[in-house]
Hints:
Layout: E1 4-12, E2 15-21, H1 37-49, E3 64-71, E4 76-82, E5 86-91, E6 98-101, H2 109-115, E7 120-121, E8 127-128, H3 146-157, H4 159-194, H5 200-250, H6 254-297, H7 301-344, H8 352-392, H9 396-458, H10 468-473
Amino acid sequence: MNNLVSIRLENFQSHLDTWVDFDVGLNVIVGQSDSGKTAIIRAIQWALYNLPRGTDFIRVGANFVRVTLQFEGGITIIRERTSSKNRYMIQKPNEEELILEGFGTQVPKEVLEAHGMYPLRVDRDNELYLHVAKQLDGPFLLEQAGSVRAKTIGRISGAHYLDMAIRDTSKDVASLQQRKKQGQETVDQLVTQLKPYEELEKSKRQLEKSELLLEQIEQKRKKLDKWKELIVLYQRQQAEKLVMQRTLQTVEDVHLWEVNNQKLAQMLVKLKELQRKRSYVEETRKNRLICEQWIHKTKDIDQIQTLYDRVFDSNHKRLNLFKLGRQYQLFINQSKESKEQLRLSDFIKEEPIEQIDRIARLVDKSKKLKQLQVIVARHSAEKKKAKREHENYRDLTDVQQRIEQISQLTQRFIVLNGFVTRHKELDERLHNGKQFIESKLNELQTLELEYEQELLQRGTCPVCGQEVKELIEK
Length: 474
């Protein structure tokens, strides 16, 4: 049992927040009537034994009640109740706080162990709280009935253990006798029920023999099924063996197939390359024939260019002469008009000065006419020369056609020159393609050697499953 050191009451009856420390030994609480002395005893009893029950002791206007008890050794028990909580809290030094809820009307075992003030249970209906007395309680057991006093003394002295032992022993003896009687009746019933099974041992031996025979039959049946499965498997393997033999005969020369396949692949590549080269050569031959024809047609292109230049110059001179001829004809017409006007003006009698001026003007016109005559003569000579050249080149329309042909040939010559350039580019691409093919063939040979080395390392062919060395020896 732990001694109580202090108590704190919060909202318990008339106490708002009261703290009371107890001294070692006897403690006396003195005060006026109805000042809360009994409430302290009632608070201790409520915290230790959950008595009284209910919520009538909560201070008016408060929404919770709490009583805190401190014991020797630093143990603290807190009893708290609100509208939603009803719990104990136990605080021990160097230990985590223990919170207990949902314990009903009984005080939790952990609370009783914490304070050590256990109630004395007289019987099922009576318990005595020896450590806390109520107000106006009489001397111990004097106010109790005789039976209660006897039970209490028996509890204190330990006599109730003897009573309990005698009572339990009597109950056990009666129970055993009853069970013995029931057991005898059961044995009699079983004997009666076992009479039809007196020959059960013989039947058991026969059943054991039958079971042994059935096991033997089952073993033989299993062996038979296994033999059937083996026969089916053997037949299947024979069929597979025939198929494998045919397959082996078919692929007996598989290494030659691989070699021939590689040769055929190489020949196919070469055939495609030769076909491509052949088509290219034929196209080049056709282009060459066309180029040779155009070269043959355009071999006199320099002479034609010279002839074209001469014809162009002659045509230009002819146009100039034609313009000069028109001017000469215009001057002749003007001269005729002037002569006609002079003839018509002979009858006019003019002053000498006027006649001199007129004569001077006529002289100037005469000089201009002589100059024009020289120019006309020169142009006449050039016109004759142009006519002679024109006679030499009467087929001027043919020359124009030839000029057009020469222009077309020139364009074709340019196209031909493009073909020649393309031919050179194709030759260069063909050379690069040959180099590329040679490099790829070298890479293919290297990969074949690596594949052969890999097969030799593995030891078996991935196609037929035979040893690679045996295939190479064959």
